[in-house]
Design brief:
Layout: H1 2-5, H2 7-28, H3 33-42, H4 47-74, H5 76-84, H6 91-117, H7 120-168, H8 170-173, H9 175-178, H10 186-221, H11 223-257, H12 261-288, H13 290-297, H14 309-331, H15 335-360, H16 364-383, H17 385-388
Helix pairs in contact: 2-7, 2-10, 2-11, 3-6, 4-6, 5-6, 6-7, 10-11, 10-15, 11-12, 11-14, 12-14, 14-16, 15-16
Length: 389
């Protein structure tokens, strides 16, 4: 639908908006979700502590998201200028985001609680239902309003997540009955703020870097070329979601529960022995099927994207090799090294991307990303060498 109705240039704008939404999700939830998963998992059997966690986070999310939503609503014109280069017809998209923001953050809270309790079946079914509903809305909006409709669909998707999780999942968890304002505990916020310090820099810096790279790409090689990079990113996200979901739902909770280096190493070994060979095999298939994939998912207009596959796949291999090691920082709340590594690698990505774009054009972006993912993986291997070896 996007390929037919908005084309490569529209994909570039969608990429900018997705980067904004990624930063907003991290900021509006104060980067608490990883911490919620950790503490809910640790206190699953302690009813009073679990109630305190749910009450404290829910109230905090509601208050902060409402304030942030008002700020976004009245700053919609400014945001439109920054994200879309002054195309003010897209201001309605930011006003929509502002209105649905509280629903979005509560949905994230539900997902984090379910994840922490290990109720994967409930989470999977709720996500499938909400995605099907969101797909129907997306098709209708794109058909009726083209690019504006595509952007609105991205903004409205969290509403479906909230609706399904509210009516489907809380019956199992009885979240509403757990909420008691008397149980609001600042000690919970204090614990979670450690995760904010770790994750917020990544949520804010990486999308900002990608946004600036895309702006430079647009000014250097054009809007369509930038759209081709966004297309490659979307394809990458489609196959990477299997790995990131496995790590988030299965391997991360295991890292949280690992109490010593031997248990941690076993989790790492299980990941590298099972996931990496499978990904390499799938990558080979994806590379040779790239023309077919582009034609099925997009259109023949996007065939130039095929030139970006090799370096994207190489970079994604290094990315998932470092993914499990990066989650160890969150599992054990290792704050300062995590922040330093995130900042350094993102700065490296920005300047290398600019250099590569000036040197070889659009192919320079996946090359720079591959180099950045390799650097990050190498740094983490050195840092965790005592556990790994």
């Amino acid at each position: 639908m996007l390929a037919i109705f908005v084309g490569p240039s529209g994909m570039a704008y969608i990429g900018n908006f997705r980067n904004f939404m990624t930063s907003l999700e991290g900021f509006s939830t104060l980067a608490f979700p990883a911490g919620i998963v950790k503490y809910v998992g640790e206190n699953e059997e302690q009813e009073s502590k679990l109630t305190k966690i749910i009450t404290t986070v829910l109230v905090t999310f509601l208050v902060f998201s409402t304030f942030l939503g008002l700020l976004i609503y009245f700053s919609s014109d400014l945001l439109c200028e920054k994200i879309f280069g002054g195309n003010m017809q897209y201001a309605v998209v930011f006003k929509t985001v502002a209105i649905v923001l509280p629903f979005s953050v509560i949905s994230v809270l539900f997902i984090s609680i379910i994840n922490g309790l290990g109720k994967y079946n409930k989470l999977i079914y709720a996500t499938i239902i909400s995605n099907v509903l969101a797909l129907v809305l997306t098709v209708i909006l794109i058909f009726q309003f083209k690019l504006v409709g595509a952007l609105l669909s991205i903004a409205l998707n969290p509403v479906f997540l909230f609706m399904v999780h509210f009516f489907y999942v809380p019956k199992e968890l009885q979240i509403v009955s757990r909420v008691n304002l008397k149980d609001y505990d600042f000690a919970v916020i204090k614990k979670l703020l450690g995760f904010s310090l770790m994750i917020l820099p990544s949520f804010l810096i990486n999308p900002f870097v990608l946004l600036e790279i895309r702006k430079f790409l647009i000014s250097s090689v054009g809007l369509d070329q930038s759209g081709f990079w966004e297309t490659m990113t979307r394809i990458s996200n489609l196959y990477l979601i299997f790995v990131t979901t496995l790590v988030g739902l299965y391997f991360y909770p295991q890292l949280v529960k690992a109490t010593n280096a031997i248990q941690t190493k076993q989790v790492f070994a299980k990941f590298y022995k099972s996931i990496i060979p499978l990904f390499i095999g799938c990558s080979i298939v994806i590379y040779f099927a790239r023309f077919w994939i582009i034609k099925i998912l997009f259109s023949t207009e996007f065939l130039p994207v095929s030139d970006l596959f090799m370096w994207q796949l190489i970079g994604d291999l290094f990315k998932i090799c470092g993914l499990i090691l990066g989650f160890q920082f969150l599992a054990k709340k290792i704050i300062i090294p995590y922040i330093i590594f995130e900042v350094v690698t993102n700065i490296f990505l920005y300047f290398l991307s600019i250099y590569c774009i000036e040197s070889i054009g659009i192919q320079g972006v996946p090359i720079a990303q591959a180099a950045e993912h390799f650097l990050y993986f190498a740094i983490l291997v050195i840092y965790f060498r005592k556990i790994l070896f």
